[in-house]
Amino acid sequence: MQLLSERVWRHTIVLFTRGDWLGDTNIEQHIETQGKALQWLVEKCGNRYHVLNTENRADSTQVTELLEKIEEMVAGHGGCHYEMDRKLLQEVEEKRRAVEERAKQRLMKVQEQRKTLRSFKGEEHHLSELRIVLLGGRCAGKSSAGNTILGREEFDTVIRTAQCVKRQGEVAGRQLTVIDTPGWWRSYSVQDAPELDKQEIVHSVSLCSPGPHALFLVIDVNKSFTETHRRAVEEHLELFSERVWRHTIVLFTRGDWLGDTSIEQRIEAGGKALQWLVEKCGNRYHVLNNEKRGDGTQVRELLEKIEEMVAGHGGCHYEMDRMLLQEVEEKRRAVEERAKQRLMKVQKQRKTLRTLFHGEEHHLSELRIVLLGGDVLGRVQQETPSWAERSLSLEEELHSV
Ligand SMILES: Nc1nc2c(ncn2[C@@H]2O[C@H](COP(=O)(O)OP(=O)(O)OP(=O)(O)O)[C@@H](O)[C@H]2O)c(=O)[nH]1
Ligand SMILES: [Mg+2]
Description:
Number of strands: 8
GO molecular function: GTP binding
Order of helices and strands: EHHEHHEHEEHEHEHHEHHHHH
Pfam family, one: AIG1
Bound molecules: guanosine-5'-triphosphate, magnesium ion
Strand content: 5-15%
Coiled coil: 82-109, 325-356
Protein name: AIG1-type G domain-containing protein
Domain AIG1-type G: 127-327
């Protein structure tokens, strides 16, 4: 509200929606029981409030009464309406115009760039096979994007992707291989990322030998993208090699949240970190609405963007430094071997204990257990395991705060 200046409160009415949820309670009782924050708000608005039952449009008295309340408020201000500080308004309008102008420039640049690349590729020339790796932060929409691209439910979007998953299919006349990967914490540096996740991320490349044509950096268009997030992206992509940027496309998900805003406006208003990322990927980006899976044009256009990028690299795909890949694969194998050993040890240990002390059928009639663990995350995980993964974004937000 402060964006609109302190004066705005004098012209504001709190409008409660979903009035039907109140049931037998009246709004005054609701305000009194909701605590100090809501009471502060109502007071700040000069005790002006109204309840709307948005489910009952036929009830016109609720609207008539609301209009009367507005008129009473205006009369109380001697007939005056709210007017914003002209300088402030002008400043905002100028910023909006600047964003729009830059967005237009960016779009023109991208169109020009794509036109040049299409002339290398030839309008009708499709690659018969395309290999794609999906990378990005947790819950960015990587698995959903994989499903949208393949046109069916191939990747699990209910649980977190903890290991690389490879799926294939034919889309728009091309044989597609899509590799889904575990996401990283958006606000964590690569040093704090679990070793296993890092190994999996790099391993993705070896699942689409001889190498991916494109790596998609999946970004949720609806979330802010700060310098911290930018650094996390940069550090994670450095797990590959500097060369990887040449083969990377920023893939924005949750396109449905953009509404009428264009992606170029979102990029220009999104701040330096996001602009840096888009530039680093050679101004290659695309928006997907994963809620609109039936829309084939968004996928076809994305595939064309890959082909243009590949044409721009003289037909080459991304290939990882063999030594680096080998190193990671050896580490993975060592981890797997140690994990197998540990499991065998535990099983042997349990078997010995079972035979030595209890016998297979002996149960205790009572068990006392204490749950210990770290802050929010630990507790949530123990109480509601199925929610635990989704609650990670909460933890992440807390971390960034
Ligand atoms: N509205 C909307 N929701 C989306 C979109 N893309 C993904 N989601 C939702 O975002 C949530 C996370 O999507 P996932 O595809 O599982 O994300 P992920 O990056 O694979 O997540 P992790 O594997 O846990 O890192 C799911 O509830 C999706 O339904 C989109 O374009 N629009
Ligand atoms: Mg996933």
